[in-house]
Design a protein that fits this description.
The chain has 4 helices and 2 strands, in the order H-E-H-E-H-H. The protein has a two-stranded parallel ribbon with strand order 1-2. The two termini are 21 Å apart. The mean pLDDT is 90.
Length: 101
């Protein structure tokens, strides 16, 4: 997920936990302001708190794994972070792009 504005991140994280997402990668992209990565909401304690709110609503106890990667290119390169986190041979990976066509 391209890192949204901090206010939006605060709103969506509980929902991510509620629907049972197991792992979430927050990454940079061309339109993501680098200052978003400096927000207090991107700190482990705050992320955990927001996810716990969602888990409480869903009556669930499985905390999603969160990975923060500011460089999208590094995340997606062959043998990069994404390959280490989610090996191609073990998981199906989907990429969604907002452009139509």
């Amino acid at each position: 997920l391209a890192l949204p504005r901090p206010q939006q991140l605060q709103k969506i994280l509980p929902h991510i936990a509620q629907i049972g997402i197991g792992s979430l990668v927050l990454c940079g992209a061309s339109k993501v302001d680098e200052n978003y990565f400096k927000s207090h909401l991107v700190q482990v304690e705050e992320l955990t708190k927001l996810l716990a709110q969602g888990l409480a609503s869903a009556e669930d106890t499985r905390m999603p794994n969160i990975v923060i990667q500011s460089d999208l290119r590094e995340l997606l390169q062959e043998g990069g972070c994404l390959d280490r986190l989610f090996p191609r041979a073990q998981v199906a990976r989907l990429v969604a792009h907002p452009a139509s066509g």
